[in-house]
Design goal:
- The protein is an alpha/beta fold.
- It is built from twelve helices and seven strands.
- Strands 1-2-3-4-5-6-7 form a seven-stranded parallel β-sheet, covered by helices on one side.
- Helix 1 runs antiparallel to helix 2 and helix 1 crosses helix 12.
- It is globular.
- The structure holds zinc ion (2 copies).
- One zinc ion binds next to loops.
Length: 329
């Protein structure tokens, strides 16, 4: 059994459990084991033979039993049961998106805002995975709690980026921003600033409970902005703890498709936004996607294989995912 496939299954279990109030703790354990396996790629067959799966960090008896099932039968009965309970589609092997073809991630954070690693550490993490590019997209000024970046700090950041770029061969750093979509749909930085950045990810972060009509206007204004490349975590949901924004998804996604703005599948397991269900709907409306880790530390790049698994289960074809294209946009 390929370690990545096992990690993907554990991750899906974590995702499904997260939505059940009393299983939150177990959900986190599955997610944590999942990315340990995605990062370390242990030889699962050998560990199974020697009965030592619990030697993997974060794998206890319960998770080891799921792994045994995966290794011996190629599927997890526990996962199948959860899917059935929660009305999720069964696995669809044919459409699986292979992480090997994933060229780069355009959504990541550094210590310039709320990331836990420096730009250099993030760049080296991406380089180690063989990525061709990495988007550095810290938060915008309105998100004051995380020290969001204004024009002046973006300029200073670009100087650091030029230095870091010299230290990472084969990886192109893209300077971007995750700009907040304000209540009225304006963006949290002037056009003149957005224009010069390589990547603009626009996201709603606050006032997600706006009434749906106002929220629709807000999102429509954002997808009409010519500088926006991607709508990041389009609903702001946190499965199991925060319902996302409600708006006329069909209208907004249709406009996004028309304006060639991609929708994000944010692979952070605490978000998974768009959800597979909504991604399927956006796909039917003609949208493109980016699948991103929204990493705040290099280890979180491991979220991507899980997000790809969920995207493939939503029926999103590879050619609609920009991270597989030679150039992300
Ligand atoms: Zn953040
Ligand atoms: Zn982010």
């Amino acid at each position: 059994m390929d370690a990545i496939v096992a990690a993907q299954a554990l991750s899906e279990i974590g995702y499904l459990l997260r939505q059940q109030e009393k299983e939150r703790f177990r959900a986190k354990a599955f997610s944590a084991a999942s990315w340990t396996i995605a990062l370390e790629r242990p030889d699962l067959g050998r560990l199974r033979k020697t009965d030592s799966l619990t030697s993997i960090d974060g794998v206890g008896e319960g998770i080891a039993r799921v792994l045994v099932d995966l290794i011996d039968h190629g599927e997890s009965r526990y996962l199948n049961r959860l899917r059935e309970q929660m009305g999720q589609p069964a696995r669809n092997d044919e459409s699986q998106l292979d992480f090997a073809g994933y060229r780069g991630d355009i959504h990541s954070h550094t210590t310039w805002s709320d990331g836990r690693a420096t730009m250099l550490e993030m760049a080296e993490g991406a380089q180690a995975l063989g990525y061709k590019y990495l988007g550095i997209t810290d938060h915008s000024p309105r998100i004051t709690v995380v020290h969001g970046l204004d024009a002046e700090r973006l300029l200073a950041q670009s100087r650091e980026m030029a230095e870091v770029q010299k230290q990472v061969d084969g990886l192109t750093l893209l300077q971007g921003i995750q700009v907040d979509i304000l209540e009225d749909g304006a963006l949290d930085l002037p056009d003149a600033v957005l224009e010069i950045l390589d990547v603009v990810i626009a996201s709603p972060h606050v006032k997600l409970r706006q009434d749906p009509a106002a929220m629709t206007e807000r999102m429509l204004r954002a997808v009409a902005n010519p500088h926006v490349d991607v709508i990041g975590h389009p609903t702001g949901r946190r499965p199991g703890s925060r319902e996302g924004a409600t708006y006329d998804f069909e209208a907004v996604f249709t406009e996004a498709a028309r304006n060639r703005i991609a929708l994000e599948i944010d692979c952070d397991p605490a978000r998974l936004d768009l959800s597979p269900e909504m991604a399927r709907m956006a796909h039917e409306l003609g949208c493109d996607f980016v699948v991103d880790a929204d990493a705040h530390a290099p280890a979180e790049f491991a979220y991507v294989p899980m997000g790809l698994w969920m995207a493939s289960r939503a029926g999103i074809p590879r050619e609609k995912i920009r991270n597989f294209r030679p150039s992300w946009n």
